[in-house]
Amino acid sequence: MNSNDTSLENDRMKSYKVAADISKSRMAKEAPLSAAALEEIEASDIVVVRDIYDHVEQVLEALQVPFQLVRIDQFDSVTLRPEQLLIINCPGNISQLAIENVRKFVSDGGSLFTTDWALRNVVEPAFPKIIEYNNKATGDDVVRIEIVDPTSPYLSGVLDDEDDPQWWLEGSSYPIRIIDTERVKVLIQSKELGTKYGEEPVAVVFSYGKGEVFHMISHYYLQRTEFRSDRHQSAAASYADEKGVEVSYETSLLMTDLKLGDVESAESSTRFIANILAEKKMKQK
Q1: Structural domain count of the chain
Q2: Given pLDDT bands bounded at 50, 70 and 90, which one contains residue 5?
Q3: Average model confidence (pLDDT) across the chain
Q4: Hey, how many other C-beta atoms are within 10 angstroms of the C-beta on 171?
Q5: Does residue 91 have a cis bond before it (omega within 30 degrees)?
Q6: CATH number of the domain residue 102 falls in
Q7: ∠ CA 178-192-242 to the nearest 5 degrees?
Q8: CA dist., res. 79 & res. 59, Å (int)
Q9: Please, are residues 51 and 90 in contact by the beta-carbon 8 Å criterion?
Q10: What is the domain range of residue 262?
Q11: Residue 50's Cα: distance from chain center in Å?
């Protein structure tokens, strides 16, 4: 990794740490029950399957949420429980046995969260004829995103009226085609994504048995954003001001070299996963 790559990686990590601080502060004010549930999460509540392309675990680390991390070659022997959230990173090349275990896990009440190529490698074989890859891979791109259902608890605080976050598409990301339109609920979409690559969904959820499956295009741990306005170029501290959040001294130091656009994109994804985690934890009670 050259010095420029290292600098970019450091900025991404700082963006997520800042975003996590802002998300948790906002949750405490806007959704105290969800904030309390997030704080009650134990490592046994979340299983993350580590893989080579996406790293959702880094977002969880920024949120200071405990979890179990397993390698993909260990996954066949993992015992899953319905009260857990299972996260499978892209590409998700799991075995046929694991596919069957995941299907039973969700059917029994478990929650599954997958990203990008796991659409073809996990979701399609485990839950056929619900959603699928449209066979039109994206380029390395950034698109504007929009909330579809602002009343969904999963989307609480993810996008406010003044927000304009950009979602990074990894080169060769898999656009999501919805087959079962009655079962699948689109949570986040991008008209720009639809225009360029044929499908608008960015994040979807569907029920299966007693459980549910969340899937998102591209990598959850965003590698970059794009500054399309003067607002995006403004200092990151102005984003905290917009949200009425007082950040810690440590967080203010992290914000020094960041732009509002960096933190806004990271906070939209951080708050989304925090909402999913909190809702899952509250359902255990």
Answers
A1: 1
A2: very low
A3: 90
A4: 10
A5: yes
A6: 3.40.50.880
A7: 110
A8: 24
A9: yes
A10: 3-283
A11: 15
